[in-house]
Known about the structure:
There is one protein chain. By secondary structure, the protein is an alpha/beta fold. The chain has helices at 12-22, 46-51, 56-59, 63-69, 118-121, 128-131, 134-144, 159-174, 197-209, and strands at 4-8, 30-35, 39-41, 60-62, 73-76, 79-83, 88-91, 96-98, 101-104, 123-124, 151-155, 181-185, 212-215, 220-224, 227-230, 235-237, 240-243. Strand 1 (4-8), helix 1 and strand 2 form a beta-alpha-beta unit. It is elongated.
Amino acid sequence: xxxxxxxxxxxxxxxxxxxxxxxxxxxxxxxxxxxxxxxxxxxxxxxxxxxxxxxxxxxxxxxxxxxxxxxxxxxxxxxxxxxxxxxxxxxxxxxxxxxxxxxxxxxxxxxxxxxxxxxxxxxxxxxxxxxxxxxxxxxxxxxxxxxxxxxxxxxxxxxxxxxxxxxxxxxxxxxxxxxxxxxxxxxxxxxxxxxxxxxxxxxxxxxxxxxxxxxxxxxxxxxxxxxxxxxxxxxxxxxxxxxxxxx
Length: 247
């Protein structure tokens, strides 16, 4: 009997599923791809967007066109509820989508995003669409705070946080804010803790070369319109606060 495969989410995982279908390695009877937008941005290029190497349009790919090329149907919508007994997915506008097999790969939200003030005052690198606000914020800070006094704080010392801190420094240099203070805050005792010691040393050296200040064992607890507060009571001024914590 023909099976209907429903893919919820238009990121990396389901693009590989579509590729497998296009190449004949998977043969569902019907495939449906569901995503809130027909366009999706590639997360690996976000640091390049911040630095100025890419435009927002260069990060995006056309999910509707890709789905069609792979023989799948694209449905624009956001999943809201699942009825496993009836094998139905309901979108937020009430539309039901029947499935025989369903896969959910909807990405992640950054850890700590629910801390006081963070949702209102921090800029996020995830979901990807929210990252596009980082560049205008840096430009505004360089214009309003003055190129000599911009203060940028990045929370999260994983690979993404380190890369974002370096590209923020590069972007501010291009804006003439060569004396801006860029600070990377990490709750753990070291950077990129899941990587090999050599990678940690390389990350530290890169931050030193870029004159990015590093604050380790520093747990963020609250954000305001122009500051970040730590658990030890320290307060960092922040014209731009970027949240790059883990998933």
